[in-house]
Amino acid sequence: xxxxxxxxxxxxxxxxxxxxxxxxxxxxxxxxxxxxxxxxxxxxxxxxxxxxxxxxxxxxxxxxxxxxxxxxxxxxxxxxxxxxxxxxxxxxxxxxxxxxxxxxxxxxxxxxxxxxxxxxxxxxxxxxxxxxxxxxxxxxxxxxxxxxxxxxxxxxxxxxxxxxxxxxxxxxxxxxxxxxx
Length: 181
Fold this sequence. Notes:
Layout: H1 2-32, E1 36-40, E2 45-48, H2 50-55, H3 61-67, H4 78-90, E3 95-102, E4 108-119, E5 125-134, H5 136-177
Antiparallel strand pairs: 1-2, 1-5, 3-4, 4-5
């Protein structure tokens, strides 16, 4: 009887352990994600992951949750914030936008935002899930690439204009000699 009870207790603890593992795995994914993840209502920041806190200049996600007021403290442009949240609320799918965000110290960064309004089974609004990837370095690289392309085009345009000027001057000189009048 004792062995059976111990066997059942061991089996129960293995089952409980296995049942907890998916929650643990999801927590690890949330905590270690290379993007910022947060959950909020329209008026309250609920939770975020460590990467999100670092993006916005906070030491920890709990510190950020205790400090941030929504709306008004994450987006650089308040009107854009309203527009993005309204679009998410109106859509059944996640919406994506490139947004300028405001860090705690007042500096800004560019992020790719994916936001989705989560609803209950009967359609009532519950909260918003949002994912942010800091693309500031990518944006800088894109701008540098565009500057280089523009400089290259201007340089080549100058060469094309020189060639066109040379060609027209040659044509003018030839017309001096081929005038049949």
